Amino acid sequence: xxxxxxxxxxxxxxxxxxxxxxxxxxxxxxxxxxxxxxxxxxxxxxxxxxxxxxxxxxxxxxxxxxxxxxxxxxxxxxxxxxxxxxxxxxxxxxxxxxxxxxxxxxxxxxxxxxxxxxxxxxxxxxxxxxxxxxxxxxxxxxxxxxxxxxxxxxxxxxxxxxxxxxxxxxxxxxxxxxxxxxxxxxxxxxxxxxxxxxxxxxxxxxxxxxxxxxxxxxxxxxxxxxxxxxxxxxxxxxxx
Length: 240
What we know:
The protein is mainly beta. The protein is built from one helix and 22 strands. Strands 1-20-17-22-15-13-14 form a seven-stranded mixed sheet, with no helix packed on it. The longest helix has 4 residues, at 138-141. The two termini are 18 Å apart.
């Protein structure tokens, strides 16, 4: 049976420090709720703002596909594979943690915060090789439709690949009045990164709101103001 579970931005748990404002769509760190650990294959959807000259020091990950999407500012990435660079709006980044990887994420700006969404999905199999990839998608997004940002689904092209054959991430930047049909899938997670939208048969969505669908039927979202969305299409849940 199809379900539509709207989660409001203000209801998210938050981690706040002198340099970080992180809002969590699911249980994360010290914020644990056994009834809110994931949706489909998506384990983490963190909405982070990092102050100038600050960031996450070198830390480990393993057995997770990590996709980072910057909304404003720039995020400097360095990892133990020797990859380094700056992630900015319109550049999609994926890090496969595999058997283990170390990385840091810093805001090297002297005066501007960086705002980004980081999303984690489980890989098909644990113990894979660590890896890294990034790709430009700004030009594709200018068309206004739903653009595949990351995918592991066989035969489904996307800007970057992930190590899960049942998951894909889409993005759309919409002008006021424009709409898109969401992918039909057993699980879908919709996150509003900016603007206001109307979700068919469910009402208005604002920045930071999320919707968890089961048996998503391809309903439409229409921008009320200029808006951007991220949508995870998932053809399995944890355990298959």
